[in-house]
Amino acid sequence: MRRWSSGHNAAVFIGLACLAGLGLYELSFTNYVHFVTPVAFDRTVSSGALPIRFDEMGDGYFGAPRVGGRKHRGIDLAAAVGTPVRAVWSGRVIKAMDEGKYGEHVRIQHANGLVSIYAHLSRMHVATGRRVRQGAVIGEVGKTGNAAYDTMVSHLHFELVRGDRRLNPTSYVEEGISEEGTAFLRTVVRRYVADAGTALLAFAVRGRPCTAEVQCEE
Ligand SMILES: [Zn+2]
Description:
Glucose Permease (Domain IIA); 9-stranded antiparallel β-sheet; two-stranded antiparallel sheet; 27% strand; elongated; disordered C terminus; binds zinc ion
C-alpha cells in the first residue's frame, strides 16, 4: 500500500495547523455584528431609551454643557459599579491606565479607523497592546477620575473618536446589541472552532491521497 511520505505529511500537517491557528486567531478578532453595546441595559424600560445619567451634577448626553463652556465629549451610560464593560468592536488596546479626569480608562483602536474610550472604570481587565475581540469584557463600571463625587450616579463615560473629532455614540449604542449579542458571538466562535478542529483531525487521521504532484512512497 502506498503511503504518503511521513516527513512530508508532518510538514504539511504543521503548516495546515499553523494556517488553521492563524485563521482562528484572525477570526476571533472579526466583528460579527454592527456594534456591541458597551454596558448592557434593559430596552424594555423607558421604551428602549438609553440609560443616560441625569443627576444634580449634570446630565450625560453628548454635547451637554460642562463648566468653562466645554461640551460633553461622549455619553454617560448609568450602570452599577462592577457592571461588565465590553469592547464595542474588535481592536487593539492603545491605552489602559488611571489618568486625570478619565480615571481608570481603556482606549481601543479599531480597524474602521475609530477609537473607543471607556472611562471612570473601577477595574481594567486588559493591558496596553493587547488585542481584544468584539464583546470581550475589558473592565468594570466605577467612579474613578472626575466621577468620584458621592452625588454623581455611577456610569460608564463612553466616547467614539475619529482623528481629533468626537462622534455622537448615541445611535451606535441604540442600535447595538448587548447580552443576547455577546451570547451569539460566543456561539459562532465555538461553532467555528469545533468545525475547524473536526476537519483538522480528519486530515491528520486520513492524510491526503497520493497524486502525481504529491510526493509519495511505498
Ligand atoms: Zn461623561
